[in-house]
Design brief:
InterPro entries: HemK-like (IPR004556), Methyltransf_25 (IPR041698), N5-glutamine_MTase (IPR050320), PrmC_N (IPR040758), RF_methyltr_PrmC (IPR019874), SAM-dependent_MTases_sf (IPR029063). It comes from Oligosphaera ethanolica. It catalyses: L-glutaminyl-[peptide chain release factor] + S-adenosyl-L-methionine = N(5)-methyl-L-glutaminyl-[peptide chain release factor] + S-adenosyl-L-homocysteine + H(+). This is Release factor glutamine methyltransferase. This protein is of the alpha/beta class. It has 2 domains: about 60 residues; about 200 residues, Rossmann fold, CATH 3.40.50.150. It is about 40% helix and about 20% strand. A 7-stranded mixed beta sheet has the order 5-4-3-6-7-9-8, sandwiched between helices. A two-stranded antiparallel sheet has the order 1-2. A hairpin with a 5-residue loop joins strand 8 and strand 9. The longest helix has 15 residues.
């Protein structure tokens, strides 16, 4: 079978399964099999017929995608901001809107002091910041042992000596004396009701622990806001990804906890996505 025929048949099957960019995904899957860059994986119809082993491998990957598995898990990696990250079962797939949190963080970083990234997952935010700020110590923390495996693999693969990862619940695994110029977080903030209506590609494959939080999705955000007061240096910044309907409540929580310069930033789609605030005083005891 020639590549063009294989791609056309795969694209039709993906489109029939409700995957709107079926042709593009078919190209990515074939690139994975051939070891090519995705953008060059569109062989012309006059090319050499593909070996049966290649076709079999492609069809195996296609079957996984048609069954609903996320494309990023099948490909094994994803580009995020300035880094390429390994991802797979047990870790949340980094989203494009989270890249904007990194941009906000880079713009607000005061120029000195360590950074802590909570609910780090694959290490996406922590490693992007470590790559862009090579002289800054960045610590990522996550409650999930499965997620930390991916974060540490990514840190080793990117050879970022200024990034480390700790296993534990939010601030608990940090040294008692650790203080930070910036704390970032992409915590679980989906409500139980919202979770039931998520797409199957998310709900059936990505870890619920990284998505859902009690108290209308605000429980973990509230703990981060309260705990960061004891970990931020004077003038330090807190940036936390939030749900698009949570901006008002999160802003109120930050203000009630004594933060200054409270703002809710929008994502590329114009939806509330990142809460930003500055801690005005020294770290609390």
């Amino acid at each position: 079978m020639r590549a063009e025929t294989l791609l056309a048949e795969a694209a039709a099957a993906l489109l029939a399964a409700g995957i709107s960019n079926g042709r593009q995904e078919a190209g990515w899957l074939l690139a994975q099999v051939l070891g090519e860059q995705p953008l060059t994986a569109q062989p012309c119809s006059g090319g050499t017929p593909l070996a049966p082993a290649v076709v079999a491998r492609f069809n195996a990957l296609l079957a996984r995608r048609l069954a609903g598995e996320p494309l990023q898990y099948i490909l094994g990696d994803v580009d995020f901001h300035c880094v390429n990250l390994l991802v797979g079962p047990g870790v949340l797939i980094p989203r494009p809107e989270t890249e904007q949190l990194v941009d906000f963080a880079l713009a607000l970083y005061p120029g000195a002091g360590a950074i802590c990234d909570l609910c780090t997952g694959s290490g996406a935010i922590a490693l992007a910041l470590a790559a862009r700020l090579p002289g800054v110590a960045v610590t990522g923390v996550d409650l999930s042992p499965e997620a930390l495996v991916w974060a540490r693999r990514n840190g080793e693969r990117l050879a970022l000596a200024n990034a480390q990862f700790l296993l534990g619940d939010l601030f608990a695994p940090l040294p008692a004396a650790a203080r930070f110029a910036m704390i970032t977080a992409n915590p679980p903030y989906v409500t139980a009701a919202e979770y039931e209506h998520l797409e199957a590609v998310v709900k059936d494959y990505e870890p619920q622990l990284a998505l859902v939080a009690p108290e209308r999705g605000l429980a973990v955000i509230r703990r981060i806001v309260e705990g960061a007061r004891r970990r931020l240096l004077s003038g330090g910044w807190l940036l936390c990804e939030i749900g698009e309907e949570q901006g008002g409540e999160v802003g109120d929580i930050l203000t009630a906890c004594g933060y200054a310069a409270v703002a809710i930033r929008q994502d590329y789609a114009g939806k509330d996505r990142v809460a930003v605030a500055r801690w005005p005083g020294g770290a609390e005891d």
